Amino acid sequence: MNVFLSLKMALKSITSNKLRTFLTMLGVIIGVASVITAVGFAEGSTESITSDLESNIKTNLLNISLKGRRTSNIEYSDIAEILDELEGIDAYSPVLNGSVTIKNSNNDTVTTPYIGTDSNYLTVQDKTMMEGRFLSSFDIDGSLNVAIIGSYISNELFPDGDAVGSYITLGGQKFKIVGILTETESSEENSADHTLIIPYTIAQRLTRAGSINTIYVKVSNANEVEKMVDIISAELFDLYENEDYYSVVSQEAMLETLSSVTDTLAIVLAGIAAISLVVGGIGIMNIMIVSVTERTREIGIRKAIGAKKINIMTQFLIEGLIITCLGGTIGILLGCGIITVIGQLGIVPAVYSMKWIIISFVVSIAIGIIFSLFPAYKAAKLDPIVALRST
Questions:
Q1: Residue 336 CA: distances (Å) to CA of 47, 267, 280, 361
Q2: Predicted confidence band at 181 (pLDDT cuts at 50, 70, 90)?
Q3: Is residue 134 over pLDDT 90?
Q4: Sign of CA dihedral 45, 48, 51, 54
Q5: Which of 222, 214, 215, 229 has the alpha carbon at shortest distance from 86?
Q6: 64 has a pLDDT exceeding 60
Q7: What gap in Å lies between CA 108 and CA 105, rounded to an integer?
Q8: Cβ within 8 Å of residue 255, ≥6 positions away
Q9: How are beta strands 109-117 and 89-103 bridged, if at all?
Q10: pLDDT at position 120, please?
Q11: Whole-Å CA distances, 4 to 7, 8, 10, 121
Q12: Beta carbons of 325 and 280 less than 8 angstroms apart
């Protein structure tokens, strides 16, 4: 019996039991669709995050993070002294982050993230002012209660446009608004315009931390960023004598790290979703074992008229292959459809990973072949005499 005849008989068997065939395919369909959807969601999330970061990333910006148990006699001024002596640095700025609820004279409130920094922050982050002025060294040294706000806060608390010169209350203290940052996005909640900037000397009191945990450094030449990372790291090691107390990374390196993490996440999600493919393979094996039992007499007749073991095995393997191919195809269409819906709903961008579509389809075929081997072998080794006696 040639392959074409085996294929014809396999198709006849499949079409004569449509419901059973569909239920057998269901595990493969769900498995393939789950893998494609999980990876598409992960890669869509990655694309969304990285596109936002890439639009704001500065290739000449370094991030110094101070962490862990620090030596008590080391102050921000000690690090500032080191940075002042290094060539190739345009500016640097300390940063303290937190969240606070502010209110205007009418007791309207807005909860906002705040940044405690100094007068160099504007230069380091390449920001500009829409109204008023930025922080000055006098504000920092005198720990004055002044604030810079983003356009979102200005619109929320001062819709009449009289924010500069007005007062807000935060932490039980009154702060004078001396400037408004230039709008960078859509001035919406949780956007870059939803921010408050105050002197870091004030932020230290608000956080009760008393220490700086982040310093941004703007390097003169973007091509020498990695060189500057090594130089600053060496200087900080001389100061702290322990690499666990600090880290120095470029923003591009942070983006690469994020990409690596999200790639790993996609693989983990795909692995979890692929478990349903194995379950689908077990379902194929079970149904085909039932099929062998039902068709024992048919197998006996075929073997009695000259069909060889390889012919019987080929037929059942082809049946399993057809079922998984159909299930894999439907699973691909379903998975891509789900990703399209997710993209249209605006949850994450619709990303179709051709690599994972091919992998999931190939794996589904492999599972179909592997889990069809036992039923096929069982059918092929039936004794024709015993099979013919079966009713």
A1: 17, 18, 20, 13
A2: very high
A3: yes
A4: negative
A5: 229
A6: yes
A7: 7
A8: 50, 53, 54, 57
A9: antiparallel
A10: 92
A11: 5, 6, 10, 74
A12: no
116 pairs with which residues across the strands? 96, 198
Amino acid, res. 78: D
In terms of C-beta density within 10 A (0-12 exposed, 13-18 middle, 19 or more buried), how is residue 205 classed?
Answer: middle
Q: For residue 219, give both structure tokens.
A: 């390097």
Alpha helices in the chain (DSSP H): 3-15, 18-56, 76-85, 121-124, 137-141, 151-157, 200-207, 225-240, 251-294, 296-304, 309-344, 354-380, 384-389
Instruction: Report helix, strand or coil for 142.
Output: coil
How do residues 18-27 score in pLDDT, each as one tens digit?
A: 777 777 777 7
C-alpha gyration radius of the chain: 33
Question: Token pair of 338, please?
Answer: 């789900």
Owner of token pair 């504000």: 139
Query: Which has more pLDDT, 166 or 263?
Result: 166
State the burial class of residue 2 (Cβ atoms within 10 Å of its Cβ: 0-12, 13-18, 19+): exposed
What average pLDDT score do residues 88-99 get?
Answer: 88
Residue with the larger pLDDT of the pair 270 and 255: 270
For tokens 């000449």, name the residue.
60
Helix (H, G, I), strand (E, B) or coil at 234: helix
pLDDT tier, 372 (very low <50, low <70, confident <90, very high otherwise): confident
pLDDT in tens, 263-279: 777 777 777 766 777 77
Backbone torsions φ then ψ of 127, nearest 5 degrees: -100, 160
Query: Do residues 317 and 372 touch, judged by C-beta distance below 8 A?
Result: yes
Q: Which residue has the higher pLDDT, 262 or 205?
A: 205
Q: Which two tokens stand for residue 148?
A: 């810079």
Does residue 312 contact residue 379 with C-beta atoms inside 8 Å?
Answer: yes
110 to 138, 149, 152, 199, 228: CA distances (angstroms):
28, 12, 10, 19, 40
